[in-house]
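Illustration: DNA starvation/stationary phase protection protein.
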Amino acid sequence: MSKYTVPGLSDTDGANVARLLQERLSAYNDLHLTLKHIHWNVVGPNFIGVHEMIDPQVELVRGYADEVAERIAALGESPKGTPGAIEKNRTWDDYSVGRDTAQAHLGALDLVYDGVITDNRKAIEEVGKLDPITEDILIGQTGQLEKFQWFVRAHLENAAGVLSNAAAQTEQKAAESAR
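Result:
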């Protein structure tokens, strides 16, 4: 436990908020690496549009990781940005799609965003009881992630509003459905 935290929080609450943020930090580090992997491995007729759509997402998510890490430090804890920390905090499988079409990657990425956004919303609910400053940070980040997911889903949606990967439970199945 830290020996200090931000004013207005107990050391215990500061440590609890930092623990929740560490999980988000690992998720963001994994997400920006996954997005870059997709950027490098997307092929097909929609290659350039998806390739160029992904890079701004990478940069923003990297910034989210930095903001979360700095908040952890302000709370008196040590942010962990190593591959080992990602593995330790991972509650999800490693991204499983290699070189594939834009549609396949977007189908799989939609599921990745589902997981990150769902976990962020859980963290928002939990941290909201302890620290409105951290809650605000996570709310803003989650709103942007939801916008990114909308960009992805716009490529997967048909005129009836149905996503091509709607029934998929795994990235591989989502990729297959979206192809």
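Reading the tokens back as a structure: Residues 44 and 101 are 5 Å apart (CA to CA).
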